[in-house]
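Exercise 7. Given the encoded structure of a 258-residue chain, write a plausible sequence.
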């Protein structure tokens, strides 16, 4: 039946309008705002169809694809991932390891790092992408598939705080973060560099099942006897050089050396 209906222009138009309404009303916002977005979308479509024609492209109702939430003054971006991924990539670029390993961070960051040094991504979830300089190895941060003191350059960005909370299908473990840190410390080679990021707060907290947050003192304690090379802190949309417990929740970036 659908194959027959698709031959009729009216069916295509109705289906296109339906897709717009479905997209708008799936969002949590006021009804007035939703109606406004719908009207603006179809007004743009009407204006576009009355402009000088580009004969290379023709609007087809089958291909209507409404994106109506992108008209913003500022580019929507998560400042935490923006800062921490840039910070980590800069560190690795500066130190120029022959082979960098990462446990559980965003694949996007590893893809960039793999363009200037061999990079291996380790995760419990496989990735079906291939690219020169980029490798994948399945592994669990609580039992890494590497020998003691075997990795010179290692990162785990925005990962440690999640371990043992079940959010990503891992087993529940109240000591998940501590055990993950112990494994990272085990595999890092003497004089090796480790880059991590974790949420920080004025006291140790658990936001079940999203993540944990740590005080600066507790993170430093957990990574003893490693030497702290650098620390940065993200509060809101700012990247600061020092920890400020009074600012409450933030994200700490730490470069340790074994």
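Solution.
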């Amino acid at each position: 039946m659908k194959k027959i209906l698709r031959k009729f222009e009216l069916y295509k138009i109705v289906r296109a309008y339906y897709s717009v309404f479905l997209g708008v009303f799936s969002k949590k916002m006021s009804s007035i705002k939703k109606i406004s977005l719908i009207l603006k979308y179809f007004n743009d479509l009407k204006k576009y169809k009355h402009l000088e024609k580009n004969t290379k492209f023709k609007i087809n109702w089958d291909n209507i694809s409404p994106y109506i939430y992108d008209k913003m003054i500022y580019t929507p971006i998560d400042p935490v991932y923006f800062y921490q991924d840039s910070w980590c990539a800069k560190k690795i670029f500066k130190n120029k390891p022959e082979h960098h390993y990462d446990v559980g961070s965003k694949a996007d960051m590893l893809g960039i790092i793999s363009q200037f040094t061999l990079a291996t991504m380790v995760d419990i979830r496989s990735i079906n992408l291939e690219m020169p300089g980029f490798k994948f190895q399945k592994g669990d941060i609580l039992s890494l598939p590497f020998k003691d003191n075997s990795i010179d350059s290692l990162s785990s960005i925005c990962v440690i705080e999640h371990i043992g909370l079940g959010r990503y299908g891992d087993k529940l473990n109240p000591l998940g973060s501590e055990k993950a840190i112990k494994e990272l410390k085990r595999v890092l080679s003497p004089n090796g560099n480790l880059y991590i990021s974790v949420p920080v707060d004025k006291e140790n907290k658990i936001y079940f099942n999203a993540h944990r947050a740590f005080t600066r003192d507790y993170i430093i304690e957990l990574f003893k006897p490693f030497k702290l090379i650098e620390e940065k802190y993200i509060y809101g949309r700012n990247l600061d050089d020092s920890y400020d417990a009074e600012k409450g929740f933030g994200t700490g970036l730490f470069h340790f050396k074994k």
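Remark. The chain has two domains: 2-63, 79-257. Students should compare their own answers with the one above.
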